[in-house]
Amino acid sequence: MPTETDEEIKQYEGFKNVTLGNVIRARTTEPPNYLSKTDQELFMKYHIPALELQTGLHELLGHGSGKLFQKDKDGKLNFDCETVLHLETSQKVASWYEEGENYHSVFGSVSSPYEECRAECVGLYLCTVPDVLR
């Protein structure tokens, strides 16, 4: 679980991510026996690049996207509340995290599973976007 410091760094600076390619490659040395011979060949050819792509999208864009709208200790917002619009309602953003609040403190025990679901959805969805596959 990220610490407050990790979250602050991610919010304002960005974050690093590491993928363990040797672990991905070591997991599957034989094709699944439930596939036809033709599909086994396709599976062995594409499963590692597909998994690496989906994992990268999950980690980098799924976990790395989005900005938490916050109010700091001086009462200043980290976004322009006069121009930023809610993506679904097209209305001005009317809520944000107050000073001292963060994603984990507000959502509690469901914050980590919810974040994983969000990242997984982003990764899976983006795997279907032609520009991502180029």
Structure explained in plain terms:
This protein has 134 residues and is mostly helical. The chain has one domain (6-132). It is 50% helix and 0% strand. The radius of gyration is 20 Å and the shape is elongated. The two termini are 34 Å apart. The model has no long low-confidence stretch (mean pLDDT 87).
Brief write-up:
The chain has 134 residues and is an all-alpha fold. The chain has helices at 4-12, 21-27, 37-62, 103-107, 111-126, 130-133. It contains 6 helices and no strands.
Radius of gyration: 20 Å
Report how far apart the termini are: 34 Å
Q: What's the overall geometry?
A: elongated
- Mean pLDDT level: 87
Tally of discrete structural domains = 1
Strand-residue proportion: under 5%
State the secondary-structure class.
Answer: mainly alpha
Helix and strand sequence: HHHHHH
Instruction: Supply the number of helical segments.
Output: 6
Give the oligomeric state of the chains in this entry, treating copies of one chain as homo and distinct chains as hetero: single chain
Number of strands: 0
Q: Percentage of helical residues?
A: 40-55%
GO cellular component, one term: cytoplasm
Keywords: Hydrolase, Metal-binding
GO molecular function: dipeptidyl-peptidase activity; metal ion binding
Protein name: Dipeptidyl peptidase 3
Name its key features:
50% helix, 0% strand, 134 residues, 6 helices, single chain, mainly alpha
Give the secondary structure arrangement, pairings included:
Blueprint: H1 4-12, H2 21-27, H3 37-62, H4 103-107, H5 111-126, H6 130-133
Helix pairs in contact: 3-5
InterPro entries: Peptidase_M49 (IPR039461)
Pfam families: Peptidase_M49
Keywords: Hydrolase, Metal-binding
